[in-house]
Design a protein that fits this description.
With 453 residues, this protein is an alpha/beta fold. It has 17 helices and 16 strands. The protein folds into 2 domains: 108 residues, Urease, subunit C, domain 1; 294 residues, Alpha-Beta Barrel (TIM Barrel), CATH 3.20.20.140. It binds zinc ion.
Length: 453
Amino acid sequence: MNEFDLGIRCRRLIAMTDSSNTPGEMVSENMFLGIRESNIAAIEPYTEELWGRCKKRIDANHHVVLPGLINTHTHLAMTLFRGFEDDVPFHQWLFERILPMENELVDPDFVRVGTMLGAAESLRNGVTTINDMYFYANEIAQVCEQAGIRACVAQVWSNFPLPENKTLGTGNIVQFTERFQSLLSNWSHHSRITPTLGPHAPYTCDDDLFRAVVALSDKTGAPIHVHLSETKFEVEESLKKFSKTPVKRLADLNVLKRGTLCAHAIHCDEIDTEILRESGASVAYNPDSNLKLGSGIAPITNYLKHGIPVGLGTDGAASNNSLSIFGAMNIGAKLQKLSQHDTTAMTAPQALHAATLGGARALGLSDRIGSLEVGKRADLICIDFDQPHLQPINDPVSHLVYSATGGDVTHVICDGHIKVKDRVLQGINTAELYGKAEQWRKTLYAKLSNMKS
Ligand SMILES: [Zn+2]
């Protein structure tokens, strides 16, 4: 008799498979989900016989079980900047505050502590996959592996001075290439880590850098992760300097293609949208960060109409200030309604789709994750609906988007492993972690007072 390593009794299950389109059709009741090793091995109506075949069990009898949430754009290590320099204009925030401080402060230990804090926050809030871009990519990959979260990890490229490379000029290309190749050789065969190429943004990378990235991507098949058209200023500067929008410039450099993830894509007109659609590139929608930095509202409704893959992201905790995909669903859907003056823009099912299967598609991982189907990786979460703010259960999908928070997640399973059990993180020493984060907070403020004096 086949046994399951883990069985979950699901009061309600939302599989997010393609055929489940309307809220009524999306929810199955009284189901059993069986996991063997890293994969989903069975999804069937619940029976005592199936329950009896499980080595471990989770009784999610008051819960909704759904695919693990996917954060398609973040910088986990920036959790250490949470609450630092809030309410500052975007270009001042980035060029006068964050980047100089990063150059002063960021080293491999900063990245290890910040990334672990971000991974802990993500898992605790139901996120099982993150798409990260930050310095010291090898350290990020190592920490994500240790935390047990699934991660796409980008080697950052930029002409701007970086903590890991303070020299400017074409020499960077050689060094960046070496670093990316080391990331690739260390992690390309790992089941949960995907190495990617991260040219930071059109305003921090010159054409030669982009060409080198594209050549490496074409040679290795590694996806590209880039910030794009985040502010009006970025677009205006690009038009002045290149007589092209950032989207047109990156398209001409062949940066935009299937597998390229564009974070933000806020200031894009119809021509840009058509270019994005034709290229096959994806968009990461980061509503909280875009609101907080006053960047604008991305035309997500239009992207969805054009069939452009859209995922949700949080961006870094310095511009959000949390890593909550529940928050992104809620705010993201409402912002689309506001900007369109249309209550039907970005519906609850569309928001939940962007947080799960849509995000998986945007990252090119939908063959493995994003929905609950036999044969896919066992990345899933249990949300406790036996709480005042989630009753009565008129529509579980609506509740997940408009009423639930990360605190409602009781269990998180990533790659078949239980990472959160009864709301408690497994395998991460949080007391020790918070102590290290506090040490870095003290170092940050010591550096800040040195910089000011
Ligand atoms: Zn970002």
